[in-house]
Structures are given as structure tokens and as C-alpha cells.
Amino acid sequence: MRQLGRLNPRHLLAAGYGPRRTEWGPRTIHTRQLFGCSSLPVLGGHRPAVKSWSLHHLRFKSKTKAPSHTAQEEKDEVEDKNDPEDSDYEDVDPNLPKDYKDMEKYVPSFRYDVVLKAGLDLARNKIDDAFYRNKLRLNGQKLIKKSKTVKVGDTLDLVMSENNETNTIILMRVILRRVLGESNDGDKYKVSIRRWKGLELAKDEAFKP
């Protein structure tokens, strides 16, 4: 009892002696309104700590949609079609017959005789025989060397027959349109070829000096 007498009323109230008293201040009432508490007892003038929420704890979901992968692919395809470097060789005389055939072949080199053999599906000895009989033409001119290297857009002709009365010729023609790439082993080139097997033209149109 002697020790209890040394305690002031505030200490007795905090220890549980005597009636409890609720202190209502402006901040207490504001906290009660925020959290919906019926009562917030405050003992000894100590106010309860109010938990604050940081904006870092809040996660907002964006309503903006990222562009779909399909739409990007369609855009790339349109750009590829508009790229003149990727387009096929189409510099062909519109007056020529349309009975040609487009094909893809593998060739080990771009020699004239190699490309012509692949385009016409002829044996090597027939190509050699036509060369020695002066029946091969490159871009309308007589072929001097059958090992000559050809490039995209070149016209390779093998003359089949000539008609002096009508001044026309019948020939087989190959045009190297495009180089598509290399084979998996890297030993051959994949090329796009356009072929005519029975093209009749005037001599002045087919032959060039």
C-alpha cells in the first residue's frame, strides 16, 4: 500500500486501478471516422498509431493493349513486298508468249553451260554440241565461251531451227530471274529460272550484232 500511495492517479489508471476513462480528441474522432471504429480508448494520453498506406502498395492495371504479334508480322510482310531488292526479276518483254515455265533449280556455279543445262534439262553433251555449231546465244549475241559467267537478268538461248523464208527462228530460252540462296551444305546455289522450250521470234528480234 505504501508503494501504491507513491503512484499518481494516471499511473493507477494505466495499471488497471480505478475507472477507465476515454479521451476523445479531434484526431481520435478523425481516425474513428476513417476506420469505422465504435470507440477508440486512449489510456494515459497515448494515442494509437494509425497505419498509413503507401502508393507503392497499390497496383494499377493498365487498359492499354500491346500490339499483337500478328499485326506486326502483317506490317513486315507489306514492307517486304514494297522492297524492290527482294522482288523477282520481271523485266520480260510483254510481247513474248506466255507459255513459259518458272522453276527453282540448284546449280554448282553460274557458268553459262551449267545454268542452261539446269534450265532446259538437257545432257551436257548436247550443250557442248550446240556450242560448237554456234547455236548458243547470250543476250542475243553469239556465245564465245561456254564457261562465261551469267548474272541475274541474262537471257540464254539455244537455237533449234531457222526459217529463211519467214526470217524467223525457233529457240529454247532460259532467263536467270533470281538467286534465292545456297544449299544446306553450301556447295550449290538455289536459283529461279524462267524457260521457254519452243519460242518463235524474228531474227532481228532474237539476234543482236
From TrEMBL:
Residues 61-100 are annotated as: Disordered. InterPro entries: MTRES1_C. Residues 74-93 have a biased composition (Acidic residues). Keywords: RNA-binding. Pfam families: MTRES1_C (PF25818). Residues 101-203 form the Mitochondrial transcription rescue factor 1 C-terminal domain. PANTHER family: MITOCHONDRIAL TRANSCRIPTION RESCUE FACTOR 1. This is Mitochondrial transcription rescue factor 1 C-terminal domain-containing protein. It comes from Characodon lateralis.
